[in-house]
Design brief:
Order of helices and strands: EEEHEEHEHHHEHEHEEHEEEHEHH
Structural class: alpha/beta
Distance between the termini: 37 Å
CATH superfamily of the largest domain: P-loop containing nucleotide triphosphate hydrolases
Mean pLDDT: 87
Helix content: 25-40%
Strand content: 25-35%
Largest sheet: 6 strands, mixed
Low-confidence stretches: 301-316
Length: 316
């Protein structure tokens, strides 16, 4: 991340109301720095895609404004568009176009000369492991390969602001890791990257900061570690539900036939794992995750005990 904290994007009271008084965004305020990978998290219908459409000048806000490198999406959308490249959520390469066709054309559209366009296209296709299929028609590719072709073209464009809505959905683990690496490399070069994703590992791996949106409102913003502090526990233990004495613990989530026990200390975690081993039961121990924090902040209560369990366990 670029540490000069120079603001690239300023979001000022952005709200959007659709027909029948449906409030997709209720007035959000935050800033995004140059050279930052900034991720939007939220449940389905939270307002993430609406926000991205406003950011990319595809939709006007009902009130408020976003300035991008000093230009307003409301007052000067054409100037904003000159600085943005985007991969929409449902975008897909098609027809007999090849990854090279897309990457090279995007570079030319950004105003590069032919030699620079060729250099940028080659560099980016190699970065996302598509060089060996650069001349393969997209109509012959898998869905994940088509998505990577568009991601490569967007990154190759060298726009100062890159916006990617669910960019790695449908990609395999290797493809995802290479896209993440390419995005982190571009951020190190000073590009500002805005992601929207449902994948907690993606958000945790690639982001400098995250914002959680729920029902059109900004719930919290911060680094992964800052957001994890919303969960007042250090560890979680996953074990078969019938092996857990729930009367001993104050924070338990039931997931089918499994229980997730949240604990505050090393001693408690070691003791519970030891108890499970003595019973011959497999137990998985780990620090609390970004997903734990997300569910707590955006999904309501993280504890899904049934009525009988609630009589036995105190739930905060």
């Amino acid at each position: 991340m670029n540490n000069n904290n120079e603001i690239a994007i300023e979001v000022k009271g952005v709200a959007k109301t659709y027909d029948k008084d449906v409030e997709a965004l209720k007035g959000v305020d935050f800033t995004i720095n140059k050279g930052e990978v900034f991720t939007l998290l939220g449940p389905n219908g939270a307002g993430k895609t609406t926000f991205i459409r406003i950011l990319c000048t595809q939709l006007m806000p009902s009130r408020g404004d976003i300035t991008i490198l000093g230009d307003s999406v409301v007052d000067d959308p054409n100037a904003v568009r000159e600085n943005i490249a985007m991969v929409p959520q449902d975008a897909m390469a098609y027809s007999n176009f090849t990854p090279w066709d897309y990457a090279y054309a995007f570079c030319l559209l950004r105003g590069m000369d032919k030699e620079k366009a060729k250099r940028k296209a080659e560099e980016t296709l190699k970065a996302v492991l598509m060089w060996d299929m650069k001349d393969k028609p997209c109509q012959e590719m898998s869905g994940g390969e088509k998505k990577r072709a568009l991601i490569a073209a967007t990154i190759a464009s060298d726009a100062p602001i890159l916006v990617l809505d669910e960019p790695t959905s449908g990609l395999d683990a290797i493809g995802r890791r290479n896209v993440w690496s390419a995005l982190r490399d571009r951020a190190a070069q000073g590009k500002t990257i805005i992601l929207s994703t449902h994948m907690m590992d993606e958000a945790e791996m690639v982001s400098d900061r995250l914002a959680i949106i729920k029902k059109g409102e900004l719930v919290t913003i911060g680094s992964t570690n800052e957001i994890k502090k919303a969960v007042p526990f250090k560890y979680r233990i996953i074990a078969p539900e019938d092996a857990i004495d729930k009367t001993k613990y104050t924070e338990v989530t039931k997931i089918g036939d499994r229980a997730v026990v949240y604990l505050t200390s090393d001693t408690e975690a070691i003791q519970l794992v030891s108890d499970m081993l003595k019973k011959g039961v497999n137990a998985e121990a780990s620090p609390v995750t970004l997903e734990d924090a997300f569910v707590r902040l955006a999904g309501g209560d993280i504890y899904e005990l049934n009525e009988e369990d609630k009589k036995e366990v105190k739930v905060k």
